[in-house]
Amino acid sequence: MPRRIKNTIVTAKVETTVGTDAAPTGAANAVLVSDATVTPLDAQSIDRALIRGSFGGSEQLVGPASVKLSYSVELAGSGAAATPPAWGALLQGCAVAEGLLTTPARVEYTPISSGLKTLTQYYYDDGLVHKLLASMGNCTLSAKVGERPMLRFEWTGLDGGIVATPNPTGTFTAWKKPVAMTKANVIDITFGATYAAGVLTDGTIYNSTGLELNFGNTVNFTPMLSTEVVDIADRQSTATMEVELTAAQEAALMMKVKANETQSLGFTIGTASGNKVLIFAPAVQLTNPRKSELNGNRLIGFDLRLVPVNGNDEWRIVCL
Fold this sequence. Notes:
Layout: E1 8-14, H1 26-29, E2 30-31, E3 34-47, E4 60-74, H2 88-92, E5 96-101, E6 106-111, E7 119-125, E8 128-144, E9 150-164, E10 186-191, E11 194-196, E12 199-201, E13 204-205, E14 207-214, E15 217-223, E16 228-235, E17 238-244, H3 247-258, E18 262-269, E19 277-294, E20 297-306, E21 316-319
Antiparallel strand pairs: 1-2, 1-7, 3-4, 4-9, 5-6, 6-21, 7-8, 8-9, 8-14, 10-13, 10-18, 11-12, 14-17, 15-16, 17-20, 18-19, 19-20, 19-21
């Protein structure tokens, strides 16, 4: 019988000790994914390059190798304002801290540069499991009009082995339904907003097609003769957007581009407690302005550079 692509289960769990198998289970650690792909062995091939007195190639040796995994998950709350969402553990593997805060009850995710966590991940491919140990990754948040808000993860991990084994049964009750990216479900891109204790105030709202935020983690696999490690060595967070502007607004934003100015940005997805996600960046530089169109209407696109103000504060994701 053929093996089926839909018969895929992914499990992920934060490791207590880096590189030690955390044994994620389908009952407690299943990840509700879309478009999952795995590279079972991302190896450095070593060519023997032998000369035998005639044309012909040589065998290659398998050199240092890691395992790569990518998938998307839906961006939704947990259903309760003080409870971390199911994807919270995944963000922790992307150099992000999880904080449970009160007044109001909320969960905040912020970037970090030390004390990074790693994940053990199992990719079950219809009877075969690929194990990633000490995995770390990068995340891209996409929230565009007419789509589901999504988190796209790209992981690198140490090779924990490949074993023929039956798939576990995944329990997905912690994964909640996202809201659709529509006018009724968002507070659009807001420049000049102030964030405090789960609330955005002030600022100017701009009509947009949504936001895409790339954490910008530099994830490296470093093999040596005594150790092999996966690590995040740097972060440069960026974003993109397209907005509808009046002529005066476009002129004003172009002045900010030319002056290398930064400004704050806010964006809110969802309206109901337990399924409301707020994104805030305190210092955003607009770059690379470009003209685009939507159904004959003028839009202006920008790339955004999210820079720190006091360190490890380029952005925050707040679940309310």
